[in-house]
Sequence to fold (386 residues):
Amino acid sequence: MTEVHAPASPWLDESALDLAELRSVAERDTDLRRYPHAAEVRDNVLVYRGADLAGADRRRLQGELIAALTDGPGVVVFTGAFEAAVVDAASGAFDALIAAQRRSGAAAGDHFGAAGANDRIWNAAQKLALQAPEVYADYYANDALALICQAWLGPRYQVTAQVNVVNPGGAAQVPHRDYHLGFVAPGQLTDYPAHVHRLSPTLTLQGAVAHTDMPVQSGPTMLLPYSQLVEGGYLAFNRPDFIDYFAGHHVQIPLDKGDALFFNPALYHGAGANTSAEIRRMANLLQVSSPFGRAMEALDHTAMVRAVYPALRAMKAAGRSPAELLNAVVATADGYPFPTNLDHDQPIGSLAPPSQVDLVLGALANDLSPDALDVALRDQNERRTP
Ligand SMILES: [Fe+2]
Fold:
């Protein structure tokens, strides 16, 4: 006789959530043997050596990363993911942006930190692209970043970045989950059906690139491995018993400059307290979105492409690999052809009209001049405008 299982409930019931569920998922040990590309397990978190990633079978490695983020600890560290010189060049540009922000008196608001405890650069991807296009192109050509973005989100994704510098004395964040449902008002969460709670984390990848060494006293991200597995977890992260549990069980992985951390946005996490006397902890926080979702920040992709295109041509002329160029283009241009104006931008002979990424890749392949690319961008934007 076939056993018939009751279908999972289509709606989440807040009163059914209890701490025992969080305990039962979080209190387990990560078995390194299940992750053959990983170098080690630190406090239940998988650590990959950046140098090991390049030579691996890409699909197999990406499959392992997907498993790690889905059913595994939910968080991975790539050591040495970014070269120190590339990080330092970007840090220099970020410091200049922060100084300009301070001079203009426009202290960036923050949804987590108290004013003065930290310095934020919102929309840091666009600001870096416009301020220092060569530095930007070199940074986002990074293949460790592309490897995990492709694994979690597919080939075309939308990079957004926010720089956070937490000064000595900066307080810890409250534990939370991230975008999308992490930013929905608590009273509305149960109006989203259970399958949307399962969908939300697949639409975003969270990351952080360490721009300074981050010993534990400087407050690297607090993480609760496996907590992404609590299906109703978006409902629970404000509950005192969950916050207490997080306080007693989170881990913090010290990072070196150039290391990167990536996690499932449903993982319970929060920035740590900076109890050091002198470390200005700088991280470039990456929020990378699926093309099928809406990113949190609005970016002027056309302005970014215009600024960065000469740097991309220079990289090509210098013999940088096609993969690196593709990574930089995908991070810069809009990779998705929709929404568009189908009266003017009809897909003829294909399912979709070309995206801005397609346009830029074609321009690079055909060695289009910046002026010619400018015309092509303007024409494409005109076709897409309602
Ligand atoms: Fe967060």
